[in-house]
Amino acid sequence: MKRSNILAVFFIIIFFFGAYSYSSAETGSHEKASFHKLETLADAVRDQGAHVTRWSLYARETSLQLKHPSEFYEQAKHLKKNFPEYTWQSVAKEQGYYQITGYRIIPNTEVKESVSFFAYPQNNNYKTYIIYEVQGNKWNIKSWRSYTPEIATKLSKIFTGKETIFTCVNGKYSDTMKSGLSKRVEQVLAHFSAEKVEQDNEKTFVSVSAYNRQWKDSIETNQRKMNLQVALRTVGSATSITIGTPIITSEY
Questions:
Q1: Residue 208 is part of a domain; what is its CATH number?
Q2: Origin, by domain of life (predicted)?
Q3: Residue 250 lies in a domain
């Protein structure tokens, strides 16, 4: 992996951890709650008359603090032993930053899942994170529910129960939109009974952060809670929609 790519990944990780530093934990099974949220995001995209082009569930957790790079390699060996079904890349390293990633396609599907382990220097030690992501380009709720038990098992095997989970859905409208982007965003917020917190308005792009009181997790922005982001963008005659909770984790 190129140095620029490695550093970009670490900046993204740090941002996500910082963004969620004010989160409140969900009660009960937060895995099941997140699975249900992904379904509601896909429903909202389809209710808007768009078709899902990508969906993802992303989980991460602070891992061990290491004293020496050799410990990273030991942990990487442990991961590879625990998940032999994955194809593992070689350890990528650059200026004290380390990363290893394993991935596979879930059998009989086009769904990809991956596990990544990262380490970077901090205060004469190495801070580490572990990340799990599952993503697909086609949405079928029956198929999704058929492999959620396997995903839940994978989450419990990778994490200690303190992981933070993000869900995100991208979609595209098949026809030229007859209503403006802002109106569409308002319709999405109404779908979730969410209150608008912040909004970025441009001629061909609208992004909104909002708060759904029914969801127990949240982050804080400008001293206000939020747990939903919606973005719509028009390029030529094509319009795309992206919805994420608590924040969008994909390009839009």
A1: 3.30.2030.10
A2: Bacteria
A3: no
